[in-house]
From TrEMBL:
The gene is map. It comes from Metapseudomonas furukawaii (Pseudomonas furukawaii). Binds 2 divalent metal cations per subunit. Has a high-affinity and a low affinity metal-binding site. The true nature of the physiological cofactor is under debate. The enzyme is active with cobalt, zinc, manganese or divalent iron ions. Most likely, methionine aminopeptidases function as mononuclear Fe(2+)-metalloproteases under physiological conditions, and the catalytically relevant metal-binding site has been assigned to the histidine-containing high-affinity site. PANTHER family: METHIONINE AMINOPEPTIDASE. This is Methionine aminopeptidase. It catalyses: Release of N-terminal amino acids, preferentially methionine, from peptides and arylamides. GO terms for cellular component: cytosol. It is an enzyme of class 3 (hydrolase). Pfam families: Peptidase_M24.
Amino acid sequence: MTVTIKTPAEIEKMRVAGRLAAEVLEMIGEHVKPGVTTEELDRICHDYIVNVQQAIPAPLNYKGFPKSICTSVNHVVCHGIPNEKPLKEGDIVNIDVTVIKDGYHGDTSKMFLVGKAPEWADKLCRVTQECMYKGIQLVKPGARLGDIGEVIQKHAEKLGYSVVREYCGHGIGAVFHEEPQVLHYGRAGTGLELKEGMTFTIEPMINQGRPETRLLGDGWTAITKDRKLSAQWEHTVLVTADGYEILTLRSDDTLPRVSP
């Protein structure tokens, strides 16, 4: 397994790409409402990335993916393809954005509630964000990937939820998906040791019901087997000399950009 350590110049490019990805999520929020289609959200994001940011939407044509963002609604776990079906009151939707700027990637996602969502849907979204934050807070040189997996799994399972196993976080840089794989379950003290200059995503997918998923016939859309809700949040994170830096931080985030 070759994990790339980023140079200061590469890290600067990743800060720029990460900030752009975060800005797309900040921009799209006001458009997420009952009646809008995910196809329309995709078009708005695509135009913003290409025309305003002068950047490239990484998912478009990546291994044949047909759109510029992923939109995963309700029981869709990840990699949902934007379509013509209107969102309705009470839906939850994950919007996953990856931007390429100057050859480097910024990858991030967040949950949006469509109109007023039921309390149990809102809670699943909140807990999933807490899981991501708890994982990020353990990032520092000398920590291990298993530390991140364990804290996420424990928090989710303690509250009666389950962690998706088939999809995970990943190293990122000039390449969209590189080593290491970042599992959202596991045992502390195991796995790769983190070193300064590593960049990767933490992106837990947490299910209301059982952890099993099923891939639809389009070859992309993953859903929960029991068709219960699934939520996901994602940030791109840098390992710094004494902790972490979140490269995709938004104004609505409650964790500081760099570890205190």
